[in-house]
Design a protein that fits this description.
The complex is a heterodimer of chains A (238) and B (111). Helix content of chain A is 35%, strand content 14%. With 238 residues, chain A is an alpha+beta fold. Chain A folds into two domains: 4-101, Beta-grasp domain (Ubiquitin-like (UB roll)), CATH 3.10.20.30; 104-234, Fumarate Reductase Iron-sulfur Protein, Chain B, domain 2. In chain A, the strands form two sheets. In chain A, strands 2-1-5-3-4 form a five-stranded mixed β-sheet. Chain A starts with a strand and ends with a helix. In chain B, 85% of the residues lie in helices and 0% in strands. The N and C termini of chain B lie far apart (38 Å). Classes of the chains: A alpha+beta (238), B mainly alpha (111). At the A-B interface, helix 10 of A face helix 1 and helix 3 of B.
Amino acid sequence: MSQTLEVQVWRGREDGGYQTFEVPARDNQTILDVVTHIQRELDPTLSYRFACRVGMCGSCAMTVNGKARWTCRTHVKKVAPDGKLQLQPLSNMPVIKDLVADMAEFFNKWTRAKGYFVPAEKPSTDFAMIAPDSPKRQEAEVGIECINCGICYASCDVVAWKPAYLGPAQLNRAWTLVNDERDHGQRDRARAVSGDAGCHSCHSLQACTERCPKHLDPAYSIAGLKRLTMKAALRGEL
Amino acid sequence: MTARLELWLWIAARLTAFVLAFGVLIHLITVIYAVRGGLSATEILARTQGNVAWLIFYVLFAWSVAIHAGIGTRTIVGEWTAWRGRSLDMACLVFALYLGVAGTQAALGLF
């Protein structure tokens, strides 16, 4: 690898452009290290998001050489062996400034997909006993480790083509709740994830599954929602 | 359009795809069989005229195409252009009806 990295960084809003920085190359350097170097040493006005630095919080996702990635868990060596980097904010979201994307709509869609637990009207008097190896718990297990980083959403072509589409992370979350036996919002959720903005718009391109840093499978969850809603419709329950 | 109707359109698209998968297979096998000794209108009409089974097959095929193509065109146009909403729904409905009616007419013409 060369001694310096040539880093093109998106500056400004949607109508902004790239600014090139030269950053010293180091061993075991992550993309987040590069961005931090730029802000601390070269240009303190650069805006970007991060928190945990260890792949737990999901806030540092950006587009790195064309693909959405966690910058904290992406080594420069792995994605830019020639020492050339191009950094942009996440796709499919408005740009606030530089590398910061506006995730408001992402989380609004989370709510629209009923991606939250709905309790029974009366508080339960006892603990819900869910066997860890029960089929539904196992189905929920597939998608439950999502940390809302937005990488699948930024990588999804259907989100780009159809702005109303709820998105893979949102539908994946809905799938975990569909399999939560304690949840009492099932019918509303099945309606929320149906139709044009919901799971039926998914073309199973599987970019979400390909890019998920946690190796979750939102495409599988969406396929599950398609089956579930189809069965409910055929039974006249939707 | 309601989520419920969208869901039914999705189911209709899947079911018609299922019919088309078999229909195309039967169609291709028939084509290969039919052209063995040269293709002529007389030969085709000899096979289809008065044959209720072929009439049912082609009418079913035509309406599966109409439903599948109507729904699919709506999806593709909605994704690739800015045209969405009621006017697109209506245009695709007219397109689907045209395909179905034209296909049925063709099938009846052979009967």
